[in-house]
Design a protein that fits this description.
Helices cover about 65% and strands about 5% of the residues. Strand 2 and strand 3 form a beta hairpin. It is of the alpha/beta class and about 425 residues long. Strands 2-3-1-4-5 form a five-stranded mixed sheet, with helices on both faces. Helix 8 runs parallel beside helix 11 and helix 8 runs antiparallel to helix 15.
Length: about 425
């Protein structure tokens, strides 16, 4: 058992001191901190909000515009102050001096409708035009209501939108009030599952193939059994991945506790941290561990069958394809988590660590269904580790070319 822990801690220390681990951990930590400072960073790139000009000689119309807009025009997601002009030349001069975002001229057609001209120095955004059209359509309706002598109460009834009440026939969908927070967590988990599992599975296959091709493996096997070495390698790499996740959780937590970052002023503007789904977080960690052990053990199996380290990238190609398929299905599931396709693929063990999280986050899934998916994934993982251990014992002593065809030879060597 002492040899197991020697290999475990040796591999763990080597990986956490590697440049790849340090660089990726720091970059992703900076990305998380950047998200927590998102409000301040976005403010740095916000353009100057300039006033919007309104040109009209009709004092009554100007008063109505001022009354209905409160001298604020919401356009492009920003509130623009309204400046009034009695002549077009003065507004053009202000626009040329870059003191206005744009200006509007208001005239009346013969049928009583309003003619609003949108005049800008540069390209006009469709959302700005739509916003102006919506506001002045309401003003036009108000003026027409005055002409036919509608009361204020009758006018409100005419302008009030139809009431739409949403009723869900299915109880599968969770409360959509935390939809954005849940979506953020799901994207984070499936991205980390894809990146970390793929990265460390590739590293495991490359490390095993390199040690085997350099004949270092023969020295290692002489002091520790192949099975112990496999488990030490696999579990130490898993703990390296969990260390990264712990760092990414701990750093923002400490910054928040030390009042260096105020989450309430940044991410909470679109993510509700007080109502995060703890069940999904727990399941996300469990699925990550099981998925890592499944793909990691397969990577070790393929790596042990390679005669050269250069072949390891080709050996793990099937794992990369499986993970990529699961990742894209998970992204698709964000838009339609209750589809039959998502339901079926979430129970395929190779895709379960990614796709089941989408369903758990957005749908009310029974405990039995979650338990069955975890049990299926766990059984396949245990079976894969068992097969890998048997193949690994013989595979590390094989140096013939080829990969998958060496599995039978490896099992024969193990039995002998």
């Amino acid at each position: 058992m002492d040899n197991f822990w020697t290999v475990f801690f040796s591999n763990y220390r080597t990986k956490i001191k590697s440049k790849t681990f340090i660089t990726f951990t720091i970059l992703f930590t900076l990305l998380i901190i950047g998200l927590m400072f998102s409000d301040k960073i976005m403010n740095l790139f916000q353009p100057d909000i300039k006033p919007v000009g309104v040109v009209t000689n009709d004092n009554g119309l100007q008063e109505i515009v001022s009354q209905m807009t409160e001298d604020q025009l919401i356009s492009g997601g920003h509130e623009h102050e309204i400046m009034y002009f009695s002549n077009k030349e003065e507004a053009e001069e202000k626009l040329a001096d870059d003191q206005l975002a744009y200006f509007l001229t208001i005239d009346s057609n013969t049928d009583g409708t309003l003619l609003v001209k949108f005049i800008a120095e540069t390209d006009v955004h469709d959302e700005d035009v739509a916003s102006v059209q919506n506001i002045f359509s309401q003003i036009q309706s108000y003026l027409m209501a005055q002409d036919i002598q509608l009361s204020d109460e009758e006018l409100l009834r005419v302008l009030s939108p139809a009431e739409v009440v949403v009723e869900k026939m299915s109880s599968n969908l969770k409360d959509e009030r935390n939809h954005l927070s849940t979506g953020f967590l799901i994207i984070l988990f499936i991205s980390l599952n894809y990146i970390l599992i793929l990265s460390y599975a590739t590293q495991l296959a490359t490390a095993v193939a390199t040690e085997k091709s350099s004949r270092v493996m023969e020295l290692i096997i002489s002091s520790i059994s192949p099975t112990k070495y496999l488990f030490a390698k696999l579990l130490s790499t898993l703990f390296v991945g969990l260390t990264q996740v712990a760092v990414w959780l701990l750093v923002p937590y400490l910054l928040y506790k030390l009042n260096i970052i105020n989450i309430d002023d940044s991410l909470s503007s679109f993510i509700n941290f007080s109502n995060l789904d703890t069940e999904m977080i727990g399941l996300g960690i469990i699925f990550f561990v099981l998925g890592f052990l499944l793909y990691g053990s397969l990577a070790c199996l393929f790596g042990s069958l390679m005669s050269r380290s250069e072949e390891s990238s080709q050996a793990v190609m099937p794992l990369m394809i499986l993970l990529l398929i699961g990742f894209y299905i998970g992204i698709f599931g964000l838009y339609n988590p209750s589809s039959t396709f998502i339901t079926v693929t979430s129970h395929i063990p190779f895709f379960t660590p990614i796709i089941m999280l989408v369903r758990v986050g957005f749908l009310n899934i029974s405990f039995l269904e979650i338990f069955i998916s975890l049990l299926t994934l766990s059984l396949l993982t245990v079976a894969t580790i068992f097969v890998t251990a048997r193949v690994f014992k013989g595979g590390v002593f094989l140096y013939q070319k080829g990969s998958f065809k060496n599995i039978k030879k490896a099992l024969d060597v193990h039995q002998n």
